[in-house]
Amino acid sequence: MLAPAPGDRRRDRTGPVTPASVAIVGVGGLGCPASLALARLGVKALTLIDPDVVDVSNLHRQPWHHPADVGRPKVASAAEKLRRQFPSLHVEGRCERLTAASAEAVFRAHDLVLDATDGVSTKFLLSDASVLTGTPAVYGGVLRFEGLAMRLERHGPCLRCLFESPPADVPTCAEAGVLGAMAGVVGGLQATLACAPSPEAGVGLLHVIDGRELTFRVVKVRRRPDCAACGDGARAVLVDPEEGSCSVPASTSPARSAR
Ligand SMILES: [Zn+2]
What is the DSSP-derived secondary structure letter of residue 10? Predict the structure, then answer.
């Protein structure tokens, strides 16, 4: 991939731009590969945010976390490995859950926020905070063999243009099962999207990966004028996330939802 000098913050729409500072929310199956890829792409500073500790069930798909790390905060485990491998990279770990009260400050303090979370309502909080602050975000999700990723820009479209509201019947990733390799693919794709502004204002590109058929398609998503967050005259409101749902609304077809 052709990239400008590390830390280049130009905002042109002609090619890849590496953000200087990125907050990664979630340091699990998506956040581990995404943080490695962002460090390789030349990001100067990473902030890792995750309230959880390493569990033995995480090890097969979260490569920063080793058996000796079980019981440690995920942010401490990941930050230690990143600092060791990239000595010039500034890494901050925050062992906390992102909330409606803290999200706005996190977005305003970084060039971009990467959504590597495992909860649908947290994903809507991140999308709404991106709309509110104008800081770009990169959505990502994996459920079973399907992966999704989309970069959210200042003027939309946002996640509510795609899914409208958090569905109530989405299983947790632990319930649904996650293919570790798919998490690696999606996390790496999210890091790439972090350096690739949307080529057309008001149009998002939803990347859909079918891990069973090994197909990859891109769906154009347009901002909805009646969107509750980024629509005409709307103002995004931050709401604390609920717990326990997974990342891809299983009953929602991106192709059907894309406008
Ligand atoms: Zn929207």
Answer: -
Distance 232 CA to ligand 1 centre (A): 10
Q: Is residue 15 part of a domain?
A: no
Q: pLDDT (tens digit, 9 = 90+) per residue, 232-246?
A: 999 898 988 876 544
Residue 80, domain extent: 21-257
Residues in the chain, overall count: 259
Active-site residue (options: 32, 161, 173, 227): 173
> For residue 222, how far is its CA from the centre of ligand 1 (angstroms)?
9
pTM of the model: 0.86
Is 4 a member of any domain?
Answer: no
Q: Is residue 166 part of a domain?
A: yes
How many domains is the chain built from?
1
Give the strands of the sheet with 45-49, arranged side by side.
90-94, 45-49, 21-25, 112-115, 137-143, 146-152, 203-210, 215-222
pLDDT tens sequence across 11-24: 444 567 899 999 99
Q: What is the CATH number of the domain that holds 252?
A: 3.40.50.720
Phi, then psi, of 82 in degrees rounded to 5: -65, -45
Q: Which amino acid is at 217?
A: R
Distance CA 203, CA 35 (A): 26
Does some domain include residue 1?
A: no
Nearest in space to 255 (alpha carbons), one of 162, 176, 178, 174: 162
Give the closest residue to 33 by CA, choosing from 69, 81, 67.
81
